[in-house]
Automatic annotation (TrEMBL):
Ranges where the record places region Disordered: 1-47
UniProt superkingdom: Bacteria
The AMP-dependent synthetase/ligase domain, residue ranges: 111-492
InterPro entries in alphabetical order: Ac_CoA_lig, ACAS_N, AMP-bd_C, AMP-bd_C_sf, AMP-dep_synth/lig_dom, ANL_N_sf
Catalyzed reactions per annotation: acetate + ATP + CoA = acetyl-CoA + AMP + diphosphate
Magnesium among keywords: yes
Biological source species: Blastococcus brunescens
Name of the protein in question: Acetyl-coenzyme A synthetase
Residues modified to N6-acetyllysine: K633
Length: 674
């Protein structure tokens, strides 16, 4: 693949000069009040939304969302925009009917855009597929017919455990088309994690593949499915996409090749209308306990908000833009901004199977150049990795097609923001730092292009039609510059409706701390004197590793499940690249032998098998005791201090402060890398 030797030096030089002094003055620090970067004039003149959008939304929030819902095609209009008579159980667009897949695919074909590319897909080895809206419609119809043939009905749960290939999206849309509820499980999760999700959701079908390509080699998926399905009697069939050609074990009668079953179906399929509140999907996410939560999203409100936020936040121009969310479909970012938002808006997207460093570290930039990507949306952890690799890599490619950048998944530190802006965005691309969660379904805090003056490191303002506050422990709104908790004070269309099968947990987790009308997000936050909101990370026992949510309790319970471990405590220690890294402290059982490195590797493998490779601790320290308060609670704050090599704070509530010295003595010199 040819590399461009020169990179356009653009209009941004002025911009680069403008930031230079702040950058130097704040290197390595979190900036509390950043420079305010005004929107470029050209963008302001042509952006999809103007400054009056905030007033319009606050004048009548429900009318505003109804206007956005009308961007979709409904077969029956709703009677009521919001029913919030039984908080926190919301119903949006009550009585309205639509088909989500029709809205994402068919209507664009009917409008004459069948030849427009929906996805430029590229596999890690460099194989490519171009899929137009007309082709996508045919494939989704065939897959929908196949699901019906397999006796999958509206309301049934279908697990999707696939790599980043077009069939993942086709399978999701086929489910949506027939009203089945999809449950995509990230391919990096283990057989155990998959089994517990299949069981919790009561899945009847698993759609998987022989494997996918990752880091230059085929990696298998089917063995994990065989293992998990063996324990899930409710799963009737396994539909297998051929991707790598690896040998697979086959269970006759249960396993079916996608190509056989889907390949023979008709491309005709009449979409049925479903209620606005019909369940669309379940996405499992880590909570503060060992059991992941099945976040339930429904149809009309979810699609309304993902479509509108995708259009407004990214200033999406369907005829001109090439949009790329560089994330995995297995996470909510992929659901909302690779699949549902872009398709509802008739976007042309890029979808890439592999990792950023395969076969070389310029792979992403090469793809931007090749497809003329105009909008790139990714996570700060990736930006920090690129920073580590050096600016010469992006400088070797022509990135002049880019006009807007997005960030998601964790706070973006100002240094990473400025680097992204300069070395990827050529100094001319505004960055939308979007705060949201699996639970919120769509963007909740973000600047708006052409409207908001940008402040590097801050997600800034609630999206129009969203109400957010920073409050203290009692729920009282805080004055400027105080640190508190982020809450959402009004229901929103894409909000989760419940935790699958556990309404009580839904109420307890999100809507009990400050009453049934206030959503507790679990994030610390602060509002500066200019009204910008800064996110400060999780306040609960959830870690954020490379933008992935992992529960400390989940890793602890895996560790204590190993026969050598008596007790475990896990903390998220700050990490310059991944945001946080997992550090575990374990006490061994009396008869277990501390074999040093060997044991540590064994424990890491054990956690990888229980949860998935992303949950493997960066460091595991074998200790004699753990610091506990007099009431017996593990003092994670101290463990975090140790893991981050900080001076220890107040240890007066420790039962035995000598414990700390014992733990410190056990610290290895350098963290192990995977
Ligand atoms: C964090 C990902 C700061 C936050 C869409 C949240 C962020 C959790 C941002 C949700 C951001 C996400 N700035 N923090 N722009 N975006 N977070 O469910 O802690 O995987 O609660 O959803 O990621 O992670 P989730």
């Amino acid at each position: 693949m040819g590399r461009a030797t020169s990179r356009r030096r653009s209009s941004c030089d002025a911009g680069q000069r403008r930031y230079a002094h702040e950058r130097d003055g704040h290197r390595g620090q979190r900036r509390d009040r950043g420079p305010s970067i005004p929107p470029p004039d050209r963008l302001a003149a042509h952006a999809n939304v103007g400054p009056d959008v905030y007033d319009e939304a606050s004048a009548d929030r429900l009318a505003f969302w109804a206007t956005q819902a009308r961007r979709l095609t409904w077969t029956q209009e709703w009677d009521e925009v919001l029913d919030w008579s039984n908080p926190p159980f919301a119903q949006w667009f009550v009585g309205g009917k639509l088909n989500v897949a029709y809205n994402c695919v068919d209507r664009h074909v009917e409008d004459g855009h069948g030849d427009q590319v929906a996805y430029h897909w590229e596999g890690e080895p460099g194989d490519t597929r171009t899929i137009t809206y007309a082709q996508l419609k045919d494939e989704v119809c065939k897959a929908a017919n196949a699901l019906t043939e397999l006796d999958v009905n509206a309301g049934d749960r279908v697990a999707i455990y696939l790599p980043m290939i077009p069939e993942t999206i086709i399978a999701m849309l086929a489910c949506a088309r027939i009203g089945a509820v999809h449950m995509v499980v990230f391919g990096g999760f283990s057989a155990d994690a998959l089994a517990s999700r299949l069981d919790d959701a009561g899945a009847v079908l698993v759609i998987t593949s022989d494997g996918g390509y990752r880091r230059g080699a085929p990696s298998a998926l089917k063995p994990a499915v065989d293992d998990a399905v063996g324990r899930s009697p409710g799963v009737r069939n396994v539909l297998v996409v051929k991707r790598t050609g690896q040998d697979v074990e086959w269970t006759e009668g249960r396993d079916l090749w996608w190509d056989d079953v889907v390949g023979r179906q008709s491309t005709e399929h009449e979409p049925e209308s479903f209620d606005a509140e019909h369940p669309l999907y379940i996405m499992y996410t880590s909570g503060t306990t060992a059991k992941p939560k099945g976040i339930l999203h429904t149809s009309g409100g979810y699609l309304t908000q993902v479509a509108y936020t995708h259009w407004a936040t990214f200033d999406l121009k369907p005829d001109d833009d090439v949009f790329w969310t560089a994330a995995d479909v297995g996470w909510v970012t992929g659901h909302s901004y690779i699949v549902y938002g872009p398709l509802a808006n008739r976007a042309t997207s890029v979808m890439y199977e592999g990792t950023p460093e395969t076969p070389h570290r310029g792979r992403w930039f090469e793809l931007i150049q090749k497809y003329g990507v105009t909008i790139l949306y990714t996570a700060p952890t990736v930006i920090r990795t690129f920073m580590k690799w050096g600016e010469d890599i992006p400088a070797g490619f022509d990135l002049s097609s880019l006009r807007l950048l997005g960030s998601v998944g964790e706070p973006i530190n100002p240094e990473a923001w400025l680097w992204y802006h300069e070395h990827v965005g050529g100094g001319r691309c505004p960055i939308m730092d979007t705060w949201w969660q699996t639970e919120t379904g769509a963007h909740m805090l973000t600047p708006l292009p052409g409207v908001t003056s940008l402040v590097p490191g801050s997600a800034q303002h609630p999206f129009p039609g969203i109400s957010a506050k920073v409050v203290d422990d009692e729920g009282k709104e805080l004055s400027d510059d105080s640190t508190g908790l982020l809450v959402l004070t009004e229901p929103w269309p894409a909000m989760l409706r419940t935790i699958w099968g556990d309404d009580d947990r839904y109420v307890d987790t999100y809507w009990s701390r400050f009453g049934k009308n206030v959503y507790f997000a679990g994030d610390g936050a602060k509002k500066d004197a200019d009204g910008n909101i800064w996110l400060l990370g999780r306040v609960d026992d959830v870690m954020n590793v490379s933008g992935h949510r992992i529960s400390t309790t989940e890793v602890e319970s895996s560790l204590v499940g190993h026969p050598a471990v008596a007790e475990a405590a896990v903390v998220g220690a700050s990490d310059p690249t991944t945001g946080q890294g997992i550090v575990a402290f374990v006490i061994l059982r009396g008869n277990a032998e501390d074999s040093g490195d060997e044991l540590v590797q064994e424990l890491r493998t054990h956690v990888g098998k229980d949860i998935g490779p992303i949950a493997k601790p960066r460091q595991i320290m074998v200790v004699q005791e753990l610091p506990k308060t007099r009431s017996g609670k593990i003092m994670r704050r101290l463990l975090r201090d140790i893991a981050e090599n900080r001076e220890l704070g107040d240890v007066t509530t420790l039962t035995d402060s000598s414990v700390m010295n014992m733990i410190k003595d056990k610290l290895p010199a350098a963290p192990s890398e995977d």
